[in-house]
């Protein structure tokens, strides 16, 4: 109950931040770009605004729409994705808790409950995997495109102050998406591995002491031998423990390539 309340408070806090941050970024952007005529022309499709109040309004509304779509919306989708995975983690936690509890009094019932919970876990995981495959791929695409665009733009020698707001927001959005997905998605195979390890210990402990449950022990042994399931983004990227180091390595490698191309061009 305490963990549920804590999760709810963190979710509400993150939702508030998702709606407040675009307003703050748009305000800073409008303040820094209020003297730049090109920005107003870009927002109004070339239409000139001479009144300072209308110019300030246009300088705020257009950046707000940009930050709401390119910062707020991806973070909101990331939050809902992580919450779905977190709710699925409750099933894994229940199975792990049941496996680790010592039920020497009624072992047949314990085996049946474990097998039923594991079957339910596999069904829920297939639904979760099918539902999140495309969203995970799109979120990772947004993340890497943001970070690569920041790497490319950062090589320019002169960057306007209001464009720095855009670059910083893109960097923060990419990092939040990358680390959030890595933490929650990679947690699933780790929890399943712990369950399989606990099942192996349970089998070793009781397979010779309970002759009537030979069939149940055999089924538990089959469950233990199954491959560890993991989430994937359209079957292209698998969320395993090595995902985050690989992603950081890819960003570092392409950053060096972009830097070398910039140096050769200059």
Automatic annotation (TrEMBL):
UniProt KW keywords: Cell membrane, Membrane, Transmembrane, Transmembrane helix
Gene Ontology BP terms: sensory perception of taste
Subcellular location: Cell membrane
Top-rank taxon, per record: Eukaryota
Pfam families: 7tm_7 (PF08395)
Transmembrane segments: 12-32, 67-88, 134-157, 163-186
GO cellular component labels: plasma membrane
Keyword Transferase found: no
Membrane topology type: Multi-pass membrane protein
Record's protein name: Gustatory receptor
Protein's organism: Araneus ventricosus (Orbweaver spider)
């Amino acid at each position: 109950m305490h963990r549920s309340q804590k999760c709810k408070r963190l979710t509400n806090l993150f939702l508030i931040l998702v709606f407040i941050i675009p307003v703050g970024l748009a305000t800073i952007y409008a303040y820094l770009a209020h003297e730049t005529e090109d920005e107003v022309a870009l927002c109004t499709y070339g239409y000139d605004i001479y009144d300072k109040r209308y110019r300030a309004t246009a300088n705020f509304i257009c950046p707000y729409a940009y930050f709401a779509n390119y910062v707020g919306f991806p973070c909101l989708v990331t939050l809902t994705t992580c919450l779905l995975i977190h709710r699925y983690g409750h099933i894994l936690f229940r199975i792990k808790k049941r496996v680790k509890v010592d039920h020497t009094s009624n072992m047949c019932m314990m085996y049946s409950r474990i097998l039923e919970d594991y079957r339910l876990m596999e069904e829920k995981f297939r639904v979760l995997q099918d539902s999140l495959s495309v969203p995970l791929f799109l979120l990772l695409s947004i993340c890497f495109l943001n970070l690569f665009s920041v790497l490319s733009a950062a090589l320019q020698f002169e960057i306007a102050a209001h464009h720095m707001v855009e670059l910083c927001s893109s960097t923060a959005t990419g990092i939040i998406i990358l680390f959030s997905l890595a933490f929650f998605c990679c947690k699933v195979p780790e929890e399943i591995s712990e369950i399989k390890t606990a099942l192996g210990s349970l089998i070793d402990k009781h397979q010779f002491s309970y002759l009537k449950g030979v069939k149940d022990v055999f089924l538990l042994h089959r469950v233990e031998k199954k491959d560890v399931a993991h989430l994937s983004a359209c079957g292209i990227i698998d969320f395993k423990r090595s995902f985050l180091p690989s992603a950081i390595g890819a960003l570092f490698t392409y950053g060096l390539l972009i830097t070398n191309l910039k140096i050769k061009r200059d």
